[in-house]
Amino acid sequence: MDIAAQLSLLLGLAWLAPLASFVAILFFGPRMGKHGRNAAWVATAAIVTSLVLRRPWGGACRRSCRRRWPCRRTRE
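and the corresponding structure tokens:
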């Protein structure tokens, strides 16, 4: 699997994690403890998962941007 396919897969999963959390809370929210207390944990876990899956893409983007537009800082 090349890097482009892997990054697109990770970004797709990062986008789908909160959506899956929303659907789970929508259908199973009343069964997630008193006043949906555990639903907050499910939502928080989905957001953290999304951030973790997004992280490799951010580094790849910065590396490719540096190759295209090298930094022109001059040192004195």
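(Above: one complete record from the training split.) The chain has a mean pLDDT of 76.
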